[in-house]
Specification:
By secondary structure, the chain is an alpha/beta fold. It contains 15 helices and 17 strands. Helix 2 packs across helix 3.
Length: 478
């Protein structure tokens, strides 16, 4: 959608930019004329959707201060999301000189005169029934709100008064509440010509803010244009629910031309990622058979150690993340953890002298991680317990490093390790969740993900070992 750069804001919208005013006027018209329309507003991350929302709230509260009416705003969580919105509203009321007739009540209500805005959690366990929205029903970060929860407990709040409803957020998957509302609104627009969906990507926002343009361009360089977070949060393009983790182009980017390196070189810095097998299998031996899918899928879970040479960008470079060149792989299948510990400690401390090691400390790996910390030092070892959030961060980090050309495998040497690694990368899958986390894995029918996870841990080790430098952020654009 294009914003009218020549639009003239009214007094209520002096803090807003033309694209925000375009959406705001449509919402305000529906509220004041009691049209009861539903809207979806997608604005690129940090582009001002929260300021649009709060300015509408201030205006509607002051216009109705002599009436006993409520507006309702829900968010995926009360703390911090809904609470931040509440504080923002109170701050704008103070700035407008309205604090003498306003108050915060019960920790979740802002009142101006007799009119109120109620802030609520749309989390699965939140008890919100019994409220009505006479002014406006707002859904913040609607892409993260459960659709069934909204339909069952929030949508009825607008029914008795035919209140206007607004869904705010950025794109995510094709199955979110926001995306479904968007598609419904676009269909209604085709029928009656009334605009109900407003969409402003990062380039629209950047036309009015050069600092924002510089920030997003640096994010594009760091993450890559095809990174799920850049596509959804800045380009507002939804992603599918799942598929291959790497495209053929990304797999090509991972291929390096440097040779495999069996020993360290003087003056070079190394980091490592260690994925530990699920447990010891006494007497088991690795499958050293020919390279085919059957042998790979039957291969037992392995402990994989990946070593990379690391170089850091020059001061002032647009992207400050290090460049990693994988130089060696080690893999052990069926070897008990207690006998493996001394070999790992020797390789990491005496041979490669790594600056940082990121190690899977989940489950049985916790003991090995703790013992390696004792052997190498807490300044070297970064234990990582896998959770939905931490695994997601690893996946996004690996994609960003790949897109930016900051991680390269050694040139194919025909070795079993290189072939196992490429097999896993080619078959790696991604599953994207509604809360902007993702999982990456190799389906059991295709084998294991030991090399894949070790590579993701390697990227984490490289970032953790990098010299700390201040990175610019856009905090409050309005």
């Amino acid at each position: 959608m294009k914003a009218d750069a020549n639009a003239r804001p009214g007094p209520w919208a002096q803090r807003l930019r033309p694209y925000q005013i375009e959406a705001g006027r449509a919402i305000l018209d529906s509220v004041l004329r009691r049209r009861g329309l539903s809207f979806s507003v997608e604005i690129a991350r940090q582009g001002g959707k929260n300021e649009l929302s709060v300015q509408l709230e201030v205006l509607l509260l002051t216009l109705h201060l002599s009436q006993d009416v409520d507006g309702v705003k829900c968010a995926p969580t009360f703390d911090p999301q809904a609470r931040i919105s509440l504080r923002r509203l109170w701050s704008r009321l103070v700035e407008a000189g309205l604090s003498s007739i306003a108050a915060v009540e019960a920790g979740h209500v802002v009142r101006v005169g007799r009119a109120r805005t109620l802030f609520m959690s749309a989390g699965p366990d939140a008890n919100v029934v019994g409220h009505s929205a006479q002014l406006l029903l707002e859904v913040d970060e609607a892409q993260d709100v459960d659709e069934e929860k909204f339909d069952r407990e929030f949508r009825p709040m607008a029914a008795t008064t035919n209140a206007t409803t607004v869904f705010y957020g950025t794109a995510w998957s094709e199955t979110t509440l926001l995306e479904r509302a968007k598609q419904r609104h676009l269909e209604l627009e085709r029928r009656d010509g009334i605009q109900r969906h407003f969409e402003y990507d990062w380039e629209t926002v950047a036309r009015y803010n050069p600092a924002y343009r510089r920030y997003v361009e640096s994010e594009r360089e760091r993450l890559g244009e095809q990174h799920p977070l850049f596509l959804t949060q800045y380009c507002l393009k939804p992603i599918g629910g799942g598929g291959r983790l790497f495209t053929p182009g990304q797999l090509a980017q991972l291929q390096g031309s440097h040779p495999r390196q069996r020993a360290p070189r003087k003056g070079e810095t190394y980091v490592a990622g260690l994925d530990l097998a699920g447990g010891a299998i006494d007497g088991a031996e690795a499958d050293a058979g020919g390279f085919d899918r059957a042998s790979l899928t039957k291969q037992r879970d392995a402990t994989v150690l990946t070593i990379a040479r690391v170089s850091y960008p020059e001061r002032g470079a647009l992207v400050q993340e290090p460049r990693l060149e994988v130089v060696e792989h080690y893999a052990w299948t069926g070897e008990p953890h207690d006998s493996l510990l001394s070999r790992l400690a020797d390789l990491l401390r005496e041979v490669w002298r790594v600056r940082r090691l990121a190690v899977d400390a989940t489950g049985l790996g916790e003991t090995i991680a703790r013992l390696l910390t004792t052997a190498l030092g807490s300044h070297i070892v970064r234990p990582l317990r896998f959770s939905a959030e931490s695994k997601s961060r690893l996946g996004y980090g690996l994609l960003a490093a790949t897109n930016g050309g900051r991680i390269k495998l050694y040139a194919g040497d025909g070795s079993l390790e290189h072939r196992h690694c490429m097999h896993e990368l080619e078959r790696a899958r991604a599953a994207y969740r509604a809360n902007r986390t993702m999982n990456f894995f190799v389906d059991q029918s295709d084998g294991h993900d030991d090399y894949l996870v070790s590579l993701a841990l390697l990227v984490e080790a490289g970032a953790d070992a990098a010299p700390r430098a201040a990175r610019g952020r856009v905090r409050d654009l309005f």
